[in-house]
Write a structure and sequence with these properties.
16 strands, 7-stranded mixed sheet, 444 residues, 6-stranded antiparallel sheet, 21% strand, alpha+beta, Rossmann fold
Amino acid sequence: MRIERLIAHHVGPFDDLDIAFPECPDPDKAELHIFVGPNGSGKSTILYALAEFFGHSLLADRMRDRDARIVLEYDGHRATLTRLPASVPVHEQLQKDGYNPSRAGERMLLYQNRDHPDHMSLDGPHTTINELRVAADDRSRGPQRPLEFAAFAYSGGRSLSSPPDIIIQEPTGNPLHEAVSFTRTVDSQKLVQWIANTRTKEALAMAKGDSALAEQRGRVIAAVERTISQLVDRTIRFVLCDEPLEVRISQDSVELSLDVLPDGLKSITSWLADLLMRLDRLPWKGQGDILQRSFVCFLDEIDVHMHPAWQRKVLPVVQRLFPNAQIFLSTHSPLVAASVSDAWIHPLTLNDGKASPGKSVPACAGDSYPAILDTLFGVDEWDIETEKLFKRFHELKRLRLAGDNSVHSKLDQLADMLRKRSLEARDIIEHEMRQLMHRLEKAS
């Protein structure tokens, strides 16, 4: 499944929203769509609207009136979420399909084939969407047949903690339960239980002398460890301790309780580990590496709690890790927006309480952070002194690129001054200097 377009009417800050999602130009990377804009411009509303089709009612209080609706176009079909049928013919058709007018105030999911726009029904052409919707609301009953795709959603308030008790047993329950709830997706008890169970299976295989089986059983957790290690530039491992029985994280061989981890590490670990756990536990159509599975993921405020250095790395790592995923995310960070290529940035604006989308633009790793701040985030100035230093830096940089070698030492000195202004200024300058060196090497 691939989401192609979202339309919304009278939802949240949008009177009318119509936003298309172009494909990723690189088939070996995940398709990324990045929403940027000021607070209140509708970034979360768009994520909730997209996730609404896969389960949970997240927009009940944001659908402003009886005419409010959201439309999802995917794979040649259209699904509409509305409180009431949009027209009399549709209402008559729904009555034929078993629609009960007494339930008109409830949320309804209508399906429409774009080749036959006059016909809408409650039964969709993509039955897996219905399966995901049912499964997300059911604690025990999971998908009834192997899946071709799935959907997951994580909020900006991601965290992780040590549960009071750990029992070594096979995971139970529906792996899609709360999968698109955003705020309740990560369950520390279930996640830690899964890690403990997997580590126990690995240990039993090793005790039998079967290292190949141990490696196979730990492959998913190993993928989580590798990914987090790449992001934080430290060796990360999940460790099952016996006194007391608990799961800890080893960070460069120093074991830490989950409760005392830095917030940034909790944020990254919680959603990545939960996502891979769910992918591992779901029944899939066909065999293969779970990292190659097709799924849709919604990430609200992906940069929350992250150090600037991690913000620059998270999207490139994720984009390579899940090549067949379609990922929609919101961010307030220019470091995130300027960190990746082969992705799309969708800027949102807010005027007099009304939000509207701007022109979608290709993301380009290497873009100047000040330019990103200005064009996409609407921030066009620092404090006066820092702004003057940056202006002078860019003048010297332009001269250096033009071949004036006499400014080399002055440029380095000014870069050092700006690095000391703030963490953000330091990261911007380091990025600018790497870009300068790259261009000079290319020109030589």
